[in-house]
Amino acid sequence: MAGAGAGAAAVERAHELYRGGRHREALELYSAALAAARGPAQRIALHSNRAACYLKLHDFRKAAEECTSVLELDREHAGALMLRAQTLVTLKDYQSALFDVNRLIEINPSSEVYRNLQARLKTQLSLAPIPECEEESLYLEEEKDELPPKGDQKIETSITKSDQPETKLVLENKPSNGHILERKPGTEPQKVDVPPTLPSKPQGWEAIPKPKGHSGLDYSKWDSVEDDSSEDEDDDEEDELPQYKFKVRTVGVRSVK
Predict the structure, then answer these.
(1) Helix (H) / strand (E) containing 170
(2) Exposure winner among 152, 168, 200, 251, fewest CB in 10 A?
């Protein structure tokens, strides 16, 4: 009797912890009481309490297992069937949940709650998910729609690969036998701007280097000078040159007898 009283006190303490929101501590007390339980009714109650604690802790698989333990002891336990069905819906196992709801309707056919739940589960199952193979095919079709046409791809690659300027073939009508193909550059060469500090290129007489001392002479006027001289005039000019005589004197030198 003392052991039974201690077990009942532990269960009452677990109920208080559960109502206070201390679900993990309550679960430990329910588990300790379940180890000391002897009758099926007491075990069913403790498994049901453990399932409620697991639901509060969001451990839905453990909660479903506790409901299964209850149904092993009582196959027509409506509370365990309803709780397991709701847990399976949370786990998206709609087929197993519908199985439990059908059993509930067998137990109580007049229940509107069970029938409404059954209708909702059937609607959910009718919305069959898209198979993976169909999803892949739809994904590939969307990729094909996003890709540009093949012709555009070829044009783009030809533009990116050509580093040389484009050339055009022009047909010119000439008096020759046939048409002559003339290759013209598509783009004009770029002009190089010469800095203003550089001197301009000399032209004509300005290109001739000027002698020292005569930098001011204008050699460009020599183009207009007519050359009427002849070889005879050159000889006369040589004769007209002044003649010089040289006399040798001896300074400071004695004659030796």
Answers:
(1) strand 167-172
(2) 251
